[in-house]
Amino acid sequence: MSIPKIINQVDTRHKAIAITFDDGPNPVYTPQILDLFREVSGKATFFMIGEQMKKYPDIVSAVSKEGHEIGNHTYTHPKLTTLTPEDCQKEVQLTEQLIRDMTGTRPVTFRPPYLDLDHKISALIHSRSYSIIGALNMEALDWEQPGVDHILSKSRKHAMNGSVLLFHDGFGNRSQTVEAVRMLVGELSSKGYKLVTVSELLELRAAT
Q: Where is the NodB homology domain (predicted)?
């Protein structure tokens, strides 16, 4: 069995970009992000942590009902390479089942916390029919609150056909992220980019 690579970008001729958010849902910032995407008629992918989903089921429901994708980001956000195979499996399965129960849909995209992977974990994730998703704009470092200008400039440079971009709506003050994303989605929309879910972006790969 081949080991899947982390997908940071899709080769496509379509002007489509997948903007993603990790570590939510969050009662303050996730609703603000939903508002931003509603304004530009865009969709996003939210890689949610199971523990957070249990705390804020209404937000999970709102994300799903507005047509956004919910991806699996484990149950407690551990470094998977430090866990036993059994515990790693449990982290994935618990959140997978939560997403099924709360949305009626099985998740098909997975982002490992800290993008921490090895061959055994990759094989496990692959065996559960997930695509493993990374991002191009890791240098944006939005989780470190480096300033709106930094987040925006380091993300803008990677905004191109097929890009996957990473931001955070959970854990800590994400006001810089919200403002940077507000500016970015406005720019991208004005340039004719379509903001799509990761799964939609993966489908465009087959249509190139």
A: 15-196
Number of H helices, E strands in the chain: 8, 7
pLDDT at 26: 98
The catalytic residue among 68, 142, 168, 169 is 168
Is 11 among the domain residues? no
Q: What is the mean pLDDT of the segment spanning 21-43?
A: 98
Question: Among 14, 22, 73, 169, which one carries the catalytic annotation?
Answer: 22
pLDDT of residue 3 exceeding 60, the answer is no
The pTM for the full model equals: 0.96
Distance CA 172, CA 144 (A): 9
Identify whether 168 is a catalytic site residue: yes
The angle formed by the CA atoms of residues 99, 105 and 110, to the nearest 5 degrees, is: 60
Any catalytic annotation for residue 22?
Answer: yes
Number of domains in the chain: 1
